[in-house]
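FAQ
Q: What does a multi-component entry look like?
A: The components come first, one per line:
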Amino acid sequence: MFVPCDRGGGSASSDFKGFTLLMPAVSVGNVGQLATDLVISTLNMTKVGYFYTDCLVPMVGNNPYATAEENSMELSINAEVYSLPSKKLVVLQIRSPFIKNKYRPFCETLLSWVKSSKCARVVLLSSSHAYQRDDEQLLGTPLRYLLTPDLEKAVGGLMQELNWKEMEKVAAYPGINDTEKVLHIPGGGITKLLFTESCSRGIQMAVLLKFCSEGDNIPDAFALVNYLNEWLQLVKSEVNTSSQWKIPSSWRLLFGNGLPPALF
Amino acid sequence: MPELLLQTEAKEGRRASHRLPASGRCCILCHTALTHYLFVVSPESREKVLASVFQYPRGNYRLGDRNAFILSAKEIDVLWTLKSGASTESSADEPFVCSKFIVAIGHNAAAFLSSFILDSVCWEVVGVVKLWNEWCRTSNTTNVLPTDSFCLFYRLISDPTVLLCQCSCYVAEDQQFQWLEKVFGCMRKEDLQVTVLSTCPVADYKTQESTLTLPSPFLKALKTKEFKEEVCCPLLEQPNIVRDLPAAVLSYCQVWQIPAVLYQCYTDVIKLDTVTIEAFKPLLSSKILKSLVKDVSESTKILKKLLTTNETHNNIYI
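Then the predicted structure of the entire assembly, as C-alpha coordinates:
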Protein backbone atom coordinates (compact mmCIF):
# COMPACT_ATOMS: atom_id res chain seq x y z
CA MET A 1 0.00 0.00 0.00
CA PHE A 2 1.10 3.56 -0.63
CA VAL A 3 2.04 5.48 2.54
CA PRO A 4 2.88 9.15 1.99
CA CYS A 5 5.98 10.62 3.65
CA ASP A 6 4.24 13.44 5.35
CA ARG A 7 0.91 12.81 6.84
CA GLY A 8 0.15 16.44 7.59
CA GLY A 9 -0.83 18.87 4.92
CA GLY A 10 1.11 17.05 2.22
CA SER A 11 -1.87 15.56 0.42
CA ALA A 12 -0.97 17.61 -2.64
CA SER A 13 2.25 15.68 -2.99
CA SER A 14 0.40 12.38 -3.25
CA ASP A 15 -2.09 13.48 -5.89
CA PHE A 16 -1.02 11.65 -9.04
CA LYS A 17 -4.01 12.35 -11.22
CA GLY A 18 -2.94 12.38 -14.85
CA PHE A 19 0.67 11.49 -14.04
CA THR A 20 2.80 8.92 -15.78
CA LEU A 21 3.94 6.15 -13.42
CA LEU A 22 7.39 4.84 -14.24
CA MET A 23 8.45 1.64 -12.57
CA PRO A 24 10.92 -1.23 -13.04
CA ALA A 25 10.29 -4.95 -13.11
CA VAL A 26 12.82 -6.98 -11.12
CA SER A 27 14.29 -8.79 -14.11
CA VAL A 28 17.49 -10.19 -15.57
CA GLY A 29 20.47 -7.94 -14.86
CA ASN A 30 18.24 -5.61 -12.81
CA VAL A 31 18.30 -3.32 -15.84
CA GLY A 32 14.89 -1.77 -15.17
CA GLN A 33 15.88 -0.90 -11.61
CA LEU A 34 19.23 0.59 -12.70
CA ALA A 35 17.50 2.67 -15.37
CA THR A 36 14.99 3.91 -12.79
CA ASP A 37 17.88 4.87 -10.50
CA LEU A 38 19.31 6.98 -13.33
CA VAL A 39 15.99 8.75 -13.87
CA ILE A 40 15.52 9.55 -10.17
CA SER A 41 19.10 10.67 -9.75
CA THR A 42 19.29 12.86 -12.87
CA LEU A 43 15.94 14.57 -12.39
CA ASN A 44 16.66 15.03 -8.67
CA MET A 45 13.23 13.73 -7.75
CA THR A 46 11.83 14.09 -4.23
CA LYS A 47 10.63 11.12 -2.23
CA VAL A 48 6.92 11.42 -1.55
CA GLY A 49 6.08 8.08 -0.01
CA TYR A 50 6.70 4.40 0.57
CA PHE A 51 5.09 1.37 -1.02
CA TYR A 52 4.70 -0.74 2.13
CA THR A 53 4.21 -4.37 1.18
CA ASP A 54 4.88 -7.87 2.48
CA CYS A 55 5.66 -9.10 -1.04
CA LEU A 56 9.27 -7.86 -1.23
CA VAL A 57 12.30 -8.96 0.82
CA PRO A 58 12.97 -6.23 3.43
CA MET A 59 16.08 -4.08 3.18
CA VAL A 60 17.17 -0.64 4.39
CA GLY A 61 20.09 1.65 3.74
CA ASN A 62 20.97 5.29 3.74
CA ASN A 63 19.96 7.62 0.91
CA PRO A 64 21.21 6.08 -2.35
CA TYR A 65 21.04 9.39 -4.23
CA ALA A 66 23.00 11.39 -1.68
CA THR A 67 25.08 14.19 -3.15
CA ALA A 68 26.52 15.66 0.04
CA GLU A 69 26.98 14.94 3.74
CA GLU A 70 23.71 16.66 4.69
CA ASN A 71 21.35 14.63 2.56
CA SER A 72 23.09 11.28 3.05
CA MET A 73 21.39 10.41 6.31
CA GLU A 74 17.87 9.73 5.21
CA LEU A 75 16.79 6.12 5.47
CA SER A 76 15.51 4.34 2.36
CA ILE A 77 13.50 1.11 2.26
CA ASN A 78 12.84 -1.50 -0.41
CA ALA A 79 10.04 0.22 -2.34
CA GLU A 80 9.68 3.99 -2.51
CA VAL A 81 7.76 6.53 -4.55
CA TYR A 82 9.37 9.67 -6.01
CA SER A 83 7.64 12.47 -7.87
CA LEU A 84 8.34 15.37 -10.21
CA PRO A 85 5.16 17.36 -10.66
CA SER A 86 6.66 19.66 -13.31
CA LYS A 87 6.94 16.71 -15.70
CA LYS A 88 3.84 14.95 -14.31
CA LEU A 89 6.07 12.00 -13.50
CA VAL A 90 5.84 9.65 -10.54
CA VAL A 91 8.37 6.86 -10.11
CA LEU A 92 8.16 3.70 -8.02
CA GLN A 93 11.58 2.20 -7.31
CA ILE A 94 11.78 -1.44 -6.21
CA ARG A 95 15.04 -2.49 -4.58
CA SER A 96 14.66 -6.12 -3.59
CA PRO A 97 13.39 -9.41 -5.01
CA PHE A 98 9.93 -10.88 -4.52
CA ILE A 99 9.14 -13.33 -1.76
CA LYS A 100 8.03 -16.74 -3.02
CA ASN A 101 4.35 -16.91 -4.10
CA LYS A 102 3.90 -13.17 -3.75
CA TYR A 103 3.99 -12.15 -7.43
CA ARG A 104 0.24 -12.15 -7.91
CA PRO A 105 -0.67 -10.32 -4.66
CA PHE A 106 1.87 -7.64 -5.52
CA CYS A 107 0.41 -7.13 -8.99
CA GLU A 108 -3.07 -6.88 -7.49
CA THR A 109 -1.97 -4.25 -4.95
CA LEU A 110 -0.03 -2.30 -7.53
CA LEU A 111 -2.76 -2.19 -10.15
CA SER A 112 -5.42 -1.23 -7.65
CA TRP A 113 -3.15 1.63 -6.50
CA VAL A 114 -2.71 2.71 -10.12
CA LYS A 115 -6.48 2.84 -10.52
CA SER A 116 -7.16 4.60 -7.23
CA SER A 117 -4.47 7.25 -7.70
CA LYS A 118 -5.81 7.92 -11.21
CA CYS A 119 -2.45 7.73 -12.99
CA ALA A 120 -2.88 8.32 -16.67
CA ARG A 121 -0.54 5.56 -17.76
CA VAL A 122 2.17 3.20 -16.56
CA VAL A 123 5.58 2.68 -18.15
CA LEU A 124 7.30 -0.55 -17.10
CA LEU A 125 11.06 -0.90 -17.62
CA SER A 126 12.18 -4.47 -17.94
CA SER A 127 14.60 -6.89 -19.57
CA SER A 128 14.65 -10.38 -20.99
CA HIS A 129 17.25 -13.11 -21.40
CA ALA A 130 19.44 -12.45 -24.43
CA TYR A 131 20.09 -16.14 -24.95
CA GLN A 132 16.43 -16.82 -25.67
CA ARG A 133 16.39 -14.72 -28.83
CA ASP A 134 15.72 -16.39 -32.14
CA ASP A 135 17.77 -15.82 -35.30
CA GLU A 136 15.92 -12.69 -36.36
CA GLN A 137 16.07 -11.10 -32.95
CA LEU A 138 19.84 -11.55 -32.83
CA LEU A 139 20.16 -8.95 -35.58
CA GLY A 140 19.28 -5.32 -35.15
CA THR A 141 18.25 -3.47 -32.02
CA PRO A 142 17.96 -5.34 -28.70
CA LEU A 143 15.24 -2.94 -27.50
CA ARG A 144 11.55 -3.74 -27.68
CA TYR A 145 8.23 -2.23 -26.63
CA LEU A 146 4.72 -3.43 -25.82
CA LEU A 147 1.51 -1.42 -25.51
CA THR A 148 -1.82 -2.35 -24.00
CA PRO A 149 -4.75 -1.81 -26.39
CA ASP A 150 -5.87 1.37 -24.57
CA LEU A 151 -2.46 2.96 -24.92
CA GLU A 152 -2.04 1.68 -28.48
CA LYS A 153 -4.84 3.98 -29.57
CA ALA A 154 -3.13 6.97 -27.97
CA VAL A 155 0.52 6.55 -28.89
CA GLY A 156 0.71 3.72 -31.42
CA GLY A 157 1.45 6.17 -34.17
CA LEU A 158 4.32 7.73 -32.26
CA MET A 159 6.01 4.35 -31.93
CA GLN A 160 5.83 3.93 -35.72
CA GLU A 161 7.49 7.30 -36.22
CA LEU A 162 10.26 6.47 -33.75
CA ASN A 163 10.85 3.27 -35.70
CA TRP A 164 10.55 1.12 -32.61
CA LYS A 165 10.21 -2.64 -32.72
CA GLU A 166 7.34 -4.38 -31.00
CA MET A 167 8.11 -7.46 -28.93
CA GLU A 168 7.46 -10.50 -31.10
CA LYS A 169 5.19 -13.30 -30.03
CA VAL A 170 6.53 -16.84 -30.04
CA ALA A 171 4.86 -20.10 -30.94
CA ALA A 172 3.11 -21.69 -28.00
CA TYR A 173 4.32 -25.17 -28.97
CA PRO A 174 7.54 -24.58 -30.91
CA GLY A 175 8.39 -27.31 -33.39
CA ILE A 176 4.93 -28.84 -33.16
CA ASN A 177 2.43 -26.16 -34.00
CA ASP A 178 3.53 -22.73 -35.23
CA THR A 179 0.12 -21.14 -35.61
CA GLU A 180 -0.70 -20.38 -31.97
CA LYS A 181 1.43 -17.45 -30.77
CA VAL A 182 1.85 -16.26 -27.20
CA LEU A 183 3.76 -13.51 -25.46
CA HIS A 184 6.86 -14.88 -23.77
CA ILE A 185 9.25 -12.73 -21.74
CA PRO A 186 11.82 -15.08 -20.13
CA GLY A 187 13.70 -13.46 -17.27
CA GLY A 188 11.23 -10.60 -17.10
CA GLY A 189 9.90 -11.30 -13.62
CA ILE A 190 6.39 -9.88 -13.23
CA THR A 191 6.45 -8.12 -16.63
CA LYS A 192 4.14 -10.51 -18.44
CA LEU A 193 1.74 -10.79 -15.52
CA LEU A 194 1.46 -7.03 -15.13
CA PHE A 195 1.04 -6.54 -18.86
CA THR A 196 -1.70 -9.14 -19.29
CA GLU A 197 -3.53 -7.91 -16.19
CA SER A 198 -3.37 -4.31 -17.45
CA CYS A 199 -4.73 -5.38 -20.82
CA SER A 200 -7.73 -7.01 -19.20
CA ARG A 201 -8.37 -4.12 -16.80
CA GLY A 202 -8.16 -1.35 -19.38
CA ILE A 203 -5.06 0.27 -17.85
CA GLN A 204 -2.79 2.15 -20.24
CA MET A 205 0.58 0.45 -19.92
CA ALA A 206 3.73 0.45 -21.99
CA VAL A 207 6.55 -2.04 -21.46
CA LEU A 208 10.04 -1.09 -22.59
CA LEU A 209 12.53 -3.89 -22.46
CA LYS A 210 16.03 -4.80 -23.50
CA PHE A 211 17.53 -8.18 -24.26
CA CYS A 212 20.52 -8.64 -22.00
CA SER A 213 22.46 -11.05 -19.82
CA GLU A 214 23.73 -10.87 -16.26
CA GLY A 215 27.05 -9.10 -15.86
CA ASP A 216 27.95 -5.43 -15.86
CA ASN A 217 24.54 -4.07 -16.73
CA ILE A 218 25.34 -0.39 -16.49
CA PRO A 219 25.60 0.02 -20.30
CA ASP A 220 22.27 -1.83 -20.64
CA ALA A 221 20.71 0.59 -18.17
CA PHE A 222 21.96 3.53 -20.19
CA ALA A 223 20.61 2.02 -23.41
CA LEU A 224 17.21 1.46 -21.83
CA VAL A 225 16.97 4.90 -20.30
CA ASN A 226 17.95 6.56 -23.60
CA TYR A 227 15.27 4.46 -25.32
CA LEU A 228 12.76 5.76 -22.77
CA ASN A 229 13.97 9.28 -23.34
CA GLU A 230 13.28 9.08 -27.06
CA TRP A 231 9.60 8.83 -26.18
CA LEU A 232 9.11 10.74 -22.92
CA GLN A 233 11.78 13.40 -23.48
CA LEU A 234 12.71 13.60 -19.81
CA VAL A 235 16.07 15.23 -20.45
CA LYS A 236 17.37 17.04 -23.46
CA SER A 237 18.94 14.60 -25.90
CA GLU A 238 22.56 15.33 -26.52
CA VAL A 239 25.06 13.89 -28.93
CA ASN A 240 27.03 12.13 -26.18
CA THR A 241 24.11 10.17 -24.80
CA SER A 242 25.78 8.89 -21.65
CA SER A 243 26.76 12.26 -20.24
CA GLN A 244 23.23 13.56 -19.74
CA TRP A 245 22.44 11.01 -16.98
CA LYS A 246 23.79 11.33 -13.45
CA ILE A 247 25.06 8.15 -11.84
CA PRO A 248 23.85 7.87 -8.23
CA SER A 249 26.43 7.65 -5.44
CA SER A 250 25.18 4.19 -4.41
CA TRP A 251 26.53 2.63 -7.63
CA ARG A 252 30.01 2.50 -6.10
CA LEU A 253 31.62 -0.85 -5.39
CA LEU A 254 29.12 -2.83 -7.45
CA PHE A 255 31.68 -5.56 -7.96
CA GLY A 256 33.03 -5.83 -4.43
CA ASN A 257 35.62 -4.21 -2.23
CA GLY A 258 39.12 -3.17 -2.97
CA LEU A 259 41.70 -5.93 -3.13
CA PRO A 260 43.88 -6.85 -0.16
CA PRO A 261 47.41 -5.57 -0.86
CA ALA A 262 48.90 -8.87 0.29
CA LEU A 263 47.25 -10.64 -2.63
CA PHE A 264 50.04 -9.61 -4.98
CA MET B 1 -20.23 -37.46 -12.33
CA PRO B 2 -20.46 -38.19 -8.62
CA GLU B 3 -17.88 -36.91 -6.23
CA LEU B 4 -15.25 -39.36 -5.24
CA LEU B 5 -13.91 -39.53 -1.73
CA LEU B 6 -10.34 -40.67 -1.83
CA GLN B 7 -8.42 -41.93 1.11
CA THR B 8 -4.72 -42.32 0.97
CA GLU B 9 -2.51 -43.94 3.52
CA ALA B 10 1.16 -43.44 4.01
CA LYS B 11 3.70 -45.48 5.93
CA GLU B 12 3.59 -43.62 9.23
CA GLY B 13 -0.12 -43.93 9.36
CA ARG B 14 -0.96 -40.40 8.36
CA ARG B 15 -3.87 -40.01 6.05
CA ALA B 16 -5.31 -37.29 4.00
CA SER B 17 -8.67 -37.59 2.40
CA HIS B 18 -9.95 -35.11 -0.08
CA ARG B 19 -13.14 -34.71 -2.01
CA LEU B 20 -12.35 -34.51 -5.66
CA PRO B 21 -14.30 -32.07 -7.77
CA ALA B 22 -16.66 -33.70 -10.22
CA SER B 23 -14.70 -32.94 -13.34
CA GLY B 24 -11.27 -32.04 -14.51
CA ARG B 25 -7.80 -32.76 -13.36
CA CYS B 26 -7.14 -32.49 -9.66
CA CYS B 27 -4.38 -32.82 -7.13
CA ILE B 28 -4.37 -34.74 -3.89
CA LEU B 29 -1.96 -34.10 -1.11
CA CYS B 30 -0.85 -36.57 1.46
CA HIS B 31 2.19 -36.63 3.63
CA THR B 32 4.59 -38.77 5.52
CA ALA B 33 6.75 -37.37 8.28
CA LEU B 34 9.24 -35.75 5.97
CA THR B 35 7.72 -34.96 2.65
CA HIS B 36 4.45 -34.24 1.02
CA TYR B 37 3.42 -36.25 -1.96
CA LEU B 38 1.35 -34.58 -4.58
CA PHE B 39 -0.72 -36.89 -6.73
CA VAL B 40 -1.99 -35.54 -10.00
CA VAL B 41 -5.02 -37.45 -11.08
CA SER B 42 -6.36 -37.17 -14.59
CA PRO B 43 -10.11 -37.56 -15.10
CA GLU B 44 -9.77 -40.86 -16.92
CA SER B 45 -7.80 -42.63 -14.24
CA ARG B 46 -9.70 -41.45 -11.17
CA GLU B 47 -10.24 -44.92 -9.86
CA LYS B 48 -6.57 -45.74 -10.28
CA VAL B 49 -5.54 -43.00 -7.82
CA LEU B 50 -2.49 -41.57 -9.39
CA ALA B 51 -1.05 -40.49 -12.70
CA SER B 52 2.06 -38.70 -11.47
CA VAL B 53 3.73 -38.27 -8.12
CA PHE B 54 5.74 -35.26 -7.10
CA GLN B 55 7.70 -34.92 -3.90
CA TYR B 56 7.29 -31.64 -2.11
CA PRO B 57 9.05 -30.28 0.98
CA ARG B 58 7.26 -30.16 4.28
CA GLY B 59 5.21 -27.10 5.11
CA ASN B 60 1.71 -25.77 5.36
CA TYR B 61 -0.20 -26.03 2.12
CA ARG B 62 -3.47 -24.48 1.15
CA LEU B 63 -5.70 -25.10 -1.83
CA GLY B 64 -5.23 -22.27 -4.29
CA ASP B 65 -6.89 -21.51 -7.58
CA ARG B 66 -6.86 -24.04 -10.39
CA ASN B 67 -6.97 -26.87 -7.84
CA ALA B 68 -3.31 -26.64 -7.05
CA PHE B 69 -1.79 -26.79 -3.60
CA ILE B 70 0.27 -23.76 -2.70
CA LEU B 71 2.83 -23.62 0.09
CA SER B 72 1.55 -21.10 2.62
CA ALA B 73 3.79 -18.70 4.41
CA LYS B 74 5.00 -20.49 7.46
CA GLU B 75 2.83 -19.38 10.37
CA ILE B 76 4.40 -17.93 13.49
CA ASP B 77 2.68 -17.67 16.87
CA VAL B 78 3.33 -14.93 19.38
CA LEU B 79 2.12 -15.90 22.85
CA TRP B 80 1.85 -13.17 25.45
CA THR B 81 1.51 -13.64 29.22
CA LEU B 82 1.07 -10.00 30.00
CA LYS B 83 -1.58 -9.64 32.61
CA SER B 84 -2.94 -12.48 34.70
CA GLY B 85 -0.18 -14.95 33.90
CA ALA B 86 -2.36 -16.99 31.57
CA SER B 87 -1.18 -17.24 27.98
CA THR B 88 -3.18 -15.30 25.47
CA GLU B 89 -2.85 -15.11 21.72
CA SER B 90 -1.54 -11.82 20.42
CA SER B 91 -3.99 -8.94 20.06
CA ALA B 92 -6.60 -10.64 22.24
CA ASP B 93 -6.63 -7.70 24.62
CA GLU B 94 -6.13 -3.99 24.18
CA PRO B 95 -2.73 -2.93 22.87
CA PHE B 96 -0.40 -2.24 25.77
CA VAL B 97 1.53 0.97 26.28
CA CYS B 98 5.17 0.79 25.30
CA SER B 99 7.71 3.59 25.59
CA LYS B 100 10.92 1.69 24.85
CA PHE B 101 11.31 -1.43 22.76
CA ILE B 102 14.79 -2.95 22.60
CA VAL B 103 15.30 -5.82 20.16
CA ALA B 104 18.44 -7.98 20.01
CA ILE B 105 18.69 -10.11 16.90
CA GLY B 106 21.24 -12.90 16.75
CA HIS B 107 23.22 -14.82 19.37
CA ASN B 108 25.79 -12.15 20.14
CA ALA B 109 23.33 -9.28 20.47
CA ALA B 110 21.08 -11.44 22.67
CA ALA B 111 24.08 -12.39 24.84
CA PHE B 112 25.00 -8.71 25.19
CA LEU B 113 21.59 -7.98 26.66
CA SER B 114 21.79 -11.05 28.90
CA SER B 115 25.15 -9.95 30.26
CA PHE B 116 24.64 -6.22 30.70
CA ILE B 117 20.91 -5.58 31.03
CA LEU B 118 18.77 -8.59 31.83
CA ASP B 119 18.43 -10.33 35.17
CA SER B 120 15.76 -12.37 36.88
CA VAL B 121 15.09 -9.75 39.57
CA CYS B 122 14.21 -6.68 37.54
CA TRP B 123 12.80 -8.33 34.40
CA GLU B 124 10.00 -10.82 33.82
CA VAL B 125 9.24 -12.90 30.74
CA VAL B 126 6.04 -11.74 29.07
CA GLY B 127 6.04 -13.37 25.69
CA VAL B 128 7.49 -16.04 23.43
CA VAL B 129 7.46 -16.59 19.67
CA LYS B 130 6.93 -20.08 18.36
CA LEU B 131 8.04 -20.65 14.78
CA TRP B 132 9.47 -23.20 12.36
CA ASN B 133 11.50 -22.74 9.20
CA GLU B 134 14.19 -24.68 7.36
CA TRP B 135 16.93 -23.22 9.58
CA CYS B 136 15.52 -23.44 13.07
CA ARG B 137 12.59 -24.19 15.25
CA THR B 138 11.58 -22.48 18.48
CA SER B 139 9.21 -23.72 21.12
CA ASN B 140 7.16 -21.96 23.76
CA THR B 141 9.44 -22.84 26.64
CA THR B 142 11.06 -19.88 28.41
CA ASN B 143 13.86 -21.86 30.00
CA VAL B 144 16.55 -21.56 27.36
CA LEU B 145 20.30 -21.79 27.00
CA PRO B 146 22.16 -18.98 25.26
CA THR B 147 23.11 -21.42 22.50
CA ASP B 148 19.49 -22.42 21.74
CA SER B 149 17.26 -20.81 19.17
CA PHE B 150 14.60 -18.74 20.88
CA CYS B 151 12.63 -15.53 20.72
CA LEU B 152 11.56 -14.16 24.10
CA PHE B 153 10.02 -10.91 25.32
CA TYR B 154 10.87 -9.38 28.71
CA ARG B 155 9.31 -6.48 30.58
CA LEU B 156 10.92 -4.27 33.23
CA ILE B 157 8.99 -4.83 36.45
CA SER B 158 9.55 -1.31 37.77
CA ASP B 159 8.43 0.27 34.49
CA PRO B 160 6.10 -2.00 32.49
CA THR B 161 6.34 0.21 29.42
CA VAL B 162 9.89 -0.96 28.75
CA LEU B 163 9.92 -4.07 26.58
CA LEU B 164 12.91 -6.09 25.53
CA CYS B 165 13.16 -8.85 22.93
CA GLN B 166 15.92 -11.42 22.46
CA CYS B 167 15.59 -13.11 19.10
CA SER B 168 18.37 -15.61 18.47
CA CYS B 169 16.47 -17.69 15.93
CA TYR B 170 16.42 -16.98 12.23
CA VAL B 171 13.13 -15.50 11.03
CA ALA B 172 12.64 -16.46 7.37
CA GLU B 173 11.69 -13.90 4.70
CA ASP B 174 8.10 -15.01 4.50
CA GLN B 175 7.78 -14.81 8.30
CA GLN B 176 9.33 -11.39 8.87
CA PHE B 177 6.18 -9.45 7.98
CA GLN B 178 4.07 -11.65 10.25
CA TRP B 179 6.55 -11.11 13.10
CA LEU B 180 6.26 -7.34 12.66
CA GLU B 181 2.50 -7.31 12.51
CA LYS B 182 2.04 -9.66 15.46
CA VAL B 183 4.57 -7.92 17.69
CA PHE B 184 3.97 -4.26 16.83
CA GLY B 185 0.26 -4.93 16.51
CA CYS B 186 0.10 -5.48 20.27
CA MET B 187 1.63 -2.21 21.30
CA ARG B 188 0.53 1.38 21.23
CA LYS B 189 2.90 3.32 19.07
CA GLU B 190 2.57 6.82 20.55
CA ASP B 191 5.84 7.89 22.24
CA LEU B 192 7.47 4.61 21.31
CA GLN B 193 11.17 4.45 20.71
CA VAL B 194 12.81 1.37 19.19
CA THR B 195 16.42 0.21 19.43
CA VAL B 196 17.65 -2.75 17.41
CA LEU B 197 20.94 -4.58 17.95
CA SER B 198 22.25 -7.07 15.44
CA THR B 199 25.40 -8.59 13.99
CA CYS B 200 26.55 -9.24 10.48
CA PRO B 201 29.68 -10.73 8.85
CA VAL B 202 32.38 -8.16 8.15
CA ALA B 203 32.84 -9.73 4.70
CA ASP B 204 29.51 -8.13 3.76
CA TYR B 205 30.85 -4.66 4.46
CA LYS B 206 31.55 -2.73 1.28
CA THR B 207 34.45 -0.37 1.40
CA GLN B 208 37.17 0.97 -0.85
CA GLU B 209 39.92 -0.85 1.02
CA SER B 210 39.87 -4.58 1.61
CA THR B 211 38.02 -5.84 4.68
CA LEU B 212 41.14 -7.78 5.73
CA THR B 213 42.80 -4.64 7.03
CA LEU B 214 39.72 -3.29 8.81
CA PRO B 215 39.89 -3.50 12.59
CA SER B 216 36.84 -5.57 13.43
CA PRO B 217 34.45 -5.84 15.18
CA PHE B 218 33.05 -2.36 14.68
CA LEU B 219 29.63 -0.74 15.06
CA LYS B 220 27.61 1.11 12.46
CA ALA B 221 24.20 2.71 12.89
CA LEU B 222 21.10 3.45 10.85
CA LYS B 223 18.27 5.62 12.12
CA THR B 224 14.77 6.54 11.02
CA LYS B 225 13.70 10.06 10.18
CA GLU B 226 12.00 10.60 13.55
CA PHE B 227 15.01 9.57 15.63
CA LYS B 228 16.55 12.80 16.84
CA GLU B 229 19.00 11.65 19.49
CA GLU B 230 22.72 11.07 19.33
CA VAL B 231 23.95 7.80 17.89
CA CYS B 232 26.92 6.10 19.56
CA CYS B 233 28.84 5.30 16.40
CA PRO B 234 29.18 6.39 12.75
CA LEU B 235 26.26 5.91 10.39
CA LEU B 236 26.33 3.11 7.82
CA GLU B 237 27.50 4.58 4.54
CA GLN B 238 26.19 3.75 1.10
CA PRO B 239 26.45 1.38 -0.72
CA ASN B 240 25.98 -0.79 2.37
CA ILE B 241 22.54 -2.15 3.17
CA VAL B 242 20.92 -4.13 5.95
CA ARG B 243 18.75 -7.21 5.40
CA ASP B 244 16.48 -9.66 7.23
CA LEU B 245 14.63 -8.97 10.48
CA PRO B 246 16.63 -5.85 11.48
CA ALA B 247 15.77 -4.32 8.09
CA ALA B 248 12.13 -5.33 8.44
CA VAL B 249 11.87 -3.65 11.88
CA LEU B 250 13.57 -0.48 10.68
CA SER B 251 11.41 -0.32 7.52
CA TYR B 252 8.28 -0.62 9.64
CA CYS B 253 9.46 2.20 11.92
CA GLN B 254 10.44 4.45 9.01
CA VAL B 255 7.10 4.01 7.24
CA TRP B 256 4.98 4.48 10.37
CA GLN B 257 7.14 7.35 11.68
CA ILE B 258 8.42 5.69 14.86
CA PRO B 259 11.82 6.91 16.08
CA ALA B 260 14.16 3.93 15.80
CA VAL B 261 17.86 3.22 15.61
CA LEU B 262 19.69 0.08 14.48
CA TYR B 263 23.19 -0.72 15.74
CA GLN B 264 24.82 -3.28 13.48
CA CYS B 265 28.06 -4.91 14.61
CA TYR B 266 30.28 -6.14 11.81
CA THR B 267 32.28 -9.08 13.08
CA ASP B 268 34.42 -11.86 11.68
CA VAL B 269 33.26 -14.47 14.19
CA ILE B 270 30.08 -16.40 13.46
CA LYS B 271 29.58 -18.02 16.86
CA LEU B 272 29.04 -16.60 20.33
CA ASP B 273 32.13 -14.51 21.09
CA THR B 274 33.00 -12.10 23.90
CA VAL B 275 34.90 -9.67 21.69
CA THR B 276 31.83 -9.20 19.51
CA ILE B 277 29.57 -8.87 22.53
CA GLU B 278 31.83 -6.25 24.05
CA ALA B 279 31.78 -4.28 20.80
CA PHE B 280 28.25 -3.26 21.78
CA LYS B 281 29.54 -1.59 24.98
CA PRO B 282 29.38 2.02 23.68
CA LEU B 283 25.59 1.59 23.70
CA LEU B 284 25.56 1.36 27.47
CA SER B 285 26.10 5.11 27.66
CA SER B 286 23.23 5.89 25.28
CA LYS B 287 20.10 7.54 26.63
CA ILE B 288 17.93 4.45 26.21
CA LEU B 289 20.16 1.88 27.88
CA LYS B 290 21.89 4.03 30.49
CA SER B 291 19.16 3.58 33.08
CA LEU B 292 18.88 -0.13 32.48
CA VAL B 293 22.50 -1.24 32.91
CA LYS B 294 23.15 -3.55 35.82
CA ASP B 295 26.23 -4.05 37.99
CA VAL B 296 29.46 -4.41 36.00
CA SER B 297 30.88 -7.27 38.07
CA GLU B 298 27.73 -9.26 37.36
CA SER B 299 28.30 -8.78 33.67
CA THR B 300 31.84 -10.14 33.67
CA LYS B 301 30.66 -13.23 35.55
CA ILE B 302 27.90 -13.85 33.06
CA LEU B 303 30.17 -13.34 30.06
CA LYS B 304 32.62 -15.91 31.46
CA LYS B 305 29.78 -18.35 32.03
CA LEU B 306 28.55 -17.86 28.47
CA LEU B 307 31.98 -18.64 27.10
CA THR B 308 32.36 -21.85 29.06
CA THR B 309 28.87 -23.08 28.13
CA ASN B 310 29.79 -22.53 24.52
CA GLU B 311 33.27 -23.98 24.71
CA THR B 312 32.28 -27.36 26.07
CA HIS B 313 30.94 -28.00 22.59
CA ASN B 314 34.29 -27.09 21.04
CA ASN B 315 36.46 -29.79 22.57
CA ILE B 316 36.42 -32.19 19.69
CA TYR B 317 40.20 -32.14 19.33
CA ILE B 318 40.90 -33.04 22.92
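Q: Is there any commentary attached?
A: Sometimes. For this entry: The longest helix of chain B spans residues 296-311.
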